[in-house]
Structure to design on (654 residues):
């Protein structure tokens, strides 16, 4: 099978669906002729023109609120934020309008809107270009939150985002954008709420989110040489969260570590931990462990930036501690 | 007032009167119901401003859309939502237009283009622009209306929404209901330039007019031009309607302290319904028999609506988390 990048895979799903569905349009800064700061729309403007590849002025609240109105009246906007940090300027439109309209209208108005942007720490982007925010989004009823970690998932989850009728946050980690992987040329979709068991094992379960997945997998290979078989689960979407898949795994392994680059307090790891405790307490042979990035804004200097994310040594230590419990 | 240019028939003129009266009587009954504790939540009435929703919505088709505000009962009724469904919604009943999920500030009837009243000041302007984007992309001749108060004019949504609609030539009619106050804050204290139409023209190059918002024919005429233009692909426009609410900001709130009794009385003399009634009589469009028939008809509708709301069941608590997503979990 051919290999393409994560960005190319997501773009392939977008192009494929734009060809099928003339009501899809993309808005964002530089997503027209320029093809997107991260090449998310490269080549599409030539095909579809400005009504469907709409370059905007720098008015995040304005175009998010506008796209809410568009989604309510028969079209399918894709808002391309470039960096997801910029969505914060439109938080009222997102949390007060987009997430609530279907409910308030008793399901008579749909809200098919995709809000995408790159997340995560890396490349000395510093604090205004390094946020992830998925725990905040997952806290809100009415939002879907997709966190693809492979090119295969990027294409399949984007397809689902573009064919469903719910608002979707599609969050792409900046360190994954150029990673290559096998992606079928034909169309396929990955349903939301289906975690992937990326590696199977019986000694412990690790839930690894987005950019942490490749790091964790590499460490598991090392530990396997020492005889430890670790099961690794990628939730792929955190809203909905496939807690059943995680519980099944914990039933088998009795041990759980959640590795997440983002903040610990009130985060998705805390939620997973609570759910496992509520529903799988008797399966646990050790306390649930969490490994998170530091609870701090993101610093610029590489020595500081590296200091706030779970690195190989920290993940290895956390896993060894868990196995020793 | 002048009805010639608009070519309104006697029947249409009487329909305008009837819609305004329906809004007035419904609001009065809702205010009473609120005082009696039958409306569990907030209630902002549209009393005094009826000419605006009436004059604008009379120019709309069923498939045109309206994005409304916290003061939205009039917009809903003028767009064609039944008084029954509006009243039942305020009473928190399952037969309300939002099945009891919304109340006064979340009235929805998308089937007839009411895309929501709103508990947040501002978003109607952006969503109105977005509907315009949809219609343009789909090649449809539908138009979109965004209502908002003077209180929204200093909000970013006003500037961002007008700007986007203007640069992309969207079929949107922005209708500012300048009733001189945002809660208790006078418009003149909220911004140095209270000429909203001028701001739309100068800052965003938009067609914009200022009209007497208590004159239903003036509103009708401005809306007719704006709607015709938008439908024909001529882009957005703004109508600034000067008006006044003669009841408190919301039911149960004080009405003194920030405005004088004299001011309220002055505006009561300019009541949009009474003024229009005199005009209809003076222009031989209706006689006293016609008025009593219209008034009786409205009275019956409103009494029936309140009785319907009162006797309807509350929603089933088991449905409290329905409709969060497009498919049930
Ligand atoms: C974003 C936001 N801030 C504050 C409020 C509280 N609030 C409700 S109505 C209102 C005044 C609105 O004034 P205006 O837009 O002039 O409308 P009017 O009530 O005069 O019709 C305020 C401040 C709100 N609903 N939304
Ligand atoms: Mg006001």
């Amino acid at each position: 099978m051919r290999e393409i990048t994560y960005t190319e895979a997501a773009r392939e799903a977008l192009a494929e669906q734009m060809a099928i569905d003339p009501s899809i349009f993309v808005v964002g800064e530089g997503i027209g002729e320029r093809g997107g700061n991260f090449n998310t729309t490269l080549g599409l403007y030539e095909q579809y023109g400005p009504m469907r590849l709409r370059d905007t002025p720098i008015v995040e609240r304005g175009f998010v609120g506008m796209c809410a109105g568009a989604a309510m009246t028969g079209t399918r906007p894709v808002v391309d934020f470039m960096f997801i940090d910029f969505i914060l300027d439109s938080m009222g439109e997102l949390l007060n309008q987009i997430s609530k309209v279907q409910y308030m209208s008793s399901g008579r108005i749909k809200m098919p809107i995709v809000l995408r942007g790159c997340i995560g720490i890396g490349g000395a982007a510093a604090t205004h270009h390094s946020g992830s925010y998925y725990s905040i989004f997952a806290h809100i009823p009415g939002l879907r939150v997709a966190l693809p970690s492979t090119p295969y998932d990027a294409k399949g989850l984007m397809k689902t985002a573009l064919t469903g009728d719910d608002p979707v946050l599609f969050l792409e980690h900046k360190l994954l954008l150029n990673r290559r992987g096998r992606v079928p040329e034909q169309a396929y979709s990955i349903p939301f709420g289906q975690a992937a068991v990326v590696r199977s094992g019986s000694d412990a379960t690790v839930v690894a989110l987005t950019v942490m997945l490749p790091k964790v997998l590499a460490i598991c290979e090392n530990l396997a040489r020492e005889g430890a078989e670790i099961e690794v689960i990628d939730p792929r979407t955190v809203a909905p969260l496939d807690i059943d898949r995680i519980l099944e795994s914990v039933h088998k392994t009795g041990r759980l570590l959640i590795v997440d680059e983002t903040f610990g307090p009130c985060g998705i790891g805390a939620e997973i931990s609570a759910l496992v405790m509520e529903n799988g307490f008797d399966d646990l042979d050790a306390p649930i462990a969490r490994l998170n990035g530091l609870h701090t804004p993101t610093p610029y200097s590489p020595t500081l930036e590296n200091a706030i994310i779970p690195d190989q040594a920290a993940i290895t230590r956390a896993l060894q501690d868990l196995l020793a419990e | 007032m002048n009805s010639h240019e608009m070519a309104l028939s006697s029947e249409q003129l009487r329909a305008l009167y009837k819609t305004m009266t329906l809004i007035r009587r419904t609001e009065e009954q809702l205010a009473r119901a609120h005082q009696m504790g039958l409306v569990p939540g907030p209630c902002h009435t549209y009393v005094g401003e009826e000419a605006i929703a009436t004059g604008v919505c009379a120019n709309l088709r069923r498939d045109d859309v309206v994005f409304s505000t916290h003061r939205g009962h009039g917009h809903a009724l003028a767009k064609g939502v039944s008084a029954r469904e509006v009243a039942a919604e305020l009473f928190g009943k399952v037969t309300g237009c939002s099945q009891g999920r919304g109340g006064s500030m979340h009235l929805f009837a998308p089937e007839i283009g009411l895309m929501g009243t709103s508990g947040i000041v501002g978003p109607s302007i952006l969503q109105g622009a977005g509907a315009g984007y949809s219609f343009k992309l789909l090649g449809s001749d539908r138009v979109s209306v965004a209502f908002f108060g003077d209180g929204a004019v200093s909000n970013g949504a006003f500037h961002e929404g007008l700007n986007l609609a203007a640069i992309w030539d969207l079929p949107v009619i922005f209708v500012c209901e300048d009733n001189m106050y945002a809660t208790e804050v006078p418009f003149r204290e909220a911004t140095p330039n209270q000429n909203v139409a001028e701001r739309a023209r100068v800052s965003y190059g938009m067609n914009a007019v200022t009209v007497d918002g208590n004159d239903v024919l003036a509103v009708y005429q401005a809306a007719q031009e704006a709607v015709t233009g938008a439908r024909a692909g001529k882009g957005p426009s703004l109508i600034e309607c000067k008006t006044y609410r003669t009841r408190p900001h919301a039911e149960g709130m004080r009405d003194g302290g920030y405005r004088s009794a004299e001011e309220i009385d002055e505006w009561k003399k300019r009541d949009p319904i009474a003024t229009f009634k005199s005009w209809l009589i003076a222009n031989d469009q209706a006689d006293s028999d016609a008025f009593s028939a219209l008034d009786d008809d409205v009275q019956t509708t409103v009494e029936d609506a309140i009785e319907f709301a009162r006797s309807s069941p509350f929603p089933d608590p088991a449905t409290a988390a329905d409709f969060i997503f497009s498919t049930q979990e």
In short: Residues B 70-71, 119-122, 149-152, 177, 179, 181-183, 249 surround thiamine diphosphate (ligand 1) (CB under 6 Å). The mean pLDDT of chain A is 98. Residues 6-20 of chain A form the longest helix (15 residues). Chain A has two domains: 3-182, 196-324.
